[in-house]
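User: quick one
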Amino acid sequence: MIPPWAVWGLAGLILGSGGATVQAAEPPLVVDLSRHRVEITTGFSGTDLLLFGALEPLHGHDSPDVVVVVRGPALTETIRRKQPVAGFWINRGSARVEGVPGFYRIAATRPLEQIAPPALRDRLELGLESVPLRVSVEEGESDPAPYRAALLRLMRARGLIEDGVGEVLQPGRRLFRTEVHFPATVPVGLYRVEVHLISHGRLIASQETPLAVDRVGLGAAIHRFAHREAGLYGAGAVLLAAFAGWLAAWVFRKG
Amino acid sequence: MQIYLPIAEMSVDVFVILGVGGGIGFLSGLFGAGGGFLLTPLLIFLGVPPAVAVGTGTNQIVASSVSGALAQWRRGNVDVQMGLILILGGLVGSGLGVLLFRWLRRLGHIDLVISASYIVLLGGVGGLMVVESLRALRRARAGGGELAPRRPHPRRWSDRLPLKIRFRRSGLYLSALLPAGIGAAIGVVSAVLGVGGGFILVPAMIYLLGMPTAVVIGTSLFQIVFVTASATFLHAAINHTVDVVLALLLLLGGVIGAQIGVRIGAGMKGEHLRGLLGLLVLAVAVKLLIDLLLPPGEPFSLGLVSGAGA
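Assistant: Done. Structure below.
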């Protein structure tokens, strides 16, 4: 005997999937990455990933635009500001900024202004100026604007964010690809890679694919040990240093 | 050749770090000052997060001071008695220093206090050492090798303090309270400023205690071993800011540099050594003063909430 709720549930499932087939029958957008994991090894000095995909060309229209956004895990940063006090430049103001993408790259087939109207850019957070940052000034004057600008400037200097829009290449009407560079300073965590298909200022389809940035090997083991067995790690660090000092003194006495 | 640092979470050039470690080790072997006041800013300049630079810096100085102290020990240049009393005072002082730091931070202006005390201390100590060694050199030249009086004040107020001890290695007979007090004062300074304190300890032992220069360097290295060992342990256990990979690279260069420093130092005159250390300390003070007075190119700085504590 099938309980009535199961029948309703099954019906809902069929109806739901039936509704989705209108779009899902021919997925307008398929994307993938050359790797879904960036491994930070001891020799890590940055890496490049290839993002590629295919799209379903629309009938009668010219081919839609592709926008790719890669963003790192959201961080909370404290930013300090030096100000003159009695002629001395010292840290006086500070602000807490929440929702800072630890990494941000965007690439598109054309300049963003030509692809999407401001409202859509803000909704999809296309471009750094559309990424909402919650700046709360903790000390000093209350204008958050200089803190926001400074944060972006400092992260740009570290190579974590880029203002420029990278190039999405379209070798044919259906294919596209772009390269994303990860510098040696990339924060670890789960990244989000979003691909949007936009035509005449309207969002047609979006695809998301995960990307993990992880420490592996000896470096990962050291990091884990330092955090889990902090006391033991500290004692080991001291002993290691003392031993190295003793060894050097001994070697030099013989030599 | 690039290597990724697991705690600092960045990748650095191995040879740059080896060079930095070697340079600091050389200075530490030559002067007996730990070099922490130079190493930490250098690491920050290379892009290492400040908290990791401080924690790892102390770890590297453990190695170079052990190496330097052993080399001095073999020459019989360590006054263990004096060193132990300085360490005891230092432990009390660093406890007081941590409390003082917290109190100053509550009052605000901790940044100004730190910057100003750095400049006053480094400038004062460096200036004094340069002036004194110039005077000693001139005296030596004019008097044709006439020996300077070891203790200019035959009877001081400190001679009336109780608990007098004979320090055989230093050839001194004075109250244990005096080195204990100096140790405590340096403990306070090193806790507030986050440095080993060698650059204050060395002149304090020479000018306040009247110890012979040869013994001063060995004894200061002996004291620095213990101070930096406890600091390294605390940084690692509480703040997770000691990067052993970075420390190993630094100390690989550092221990070699320290040995070379000790050798060259052994062949140099005390006045020359003191004068050079004075100039170095003075240069750092001037650099800090300029940084404080000139409008900075980038007035904003970034600090991750997790990790970089104070």
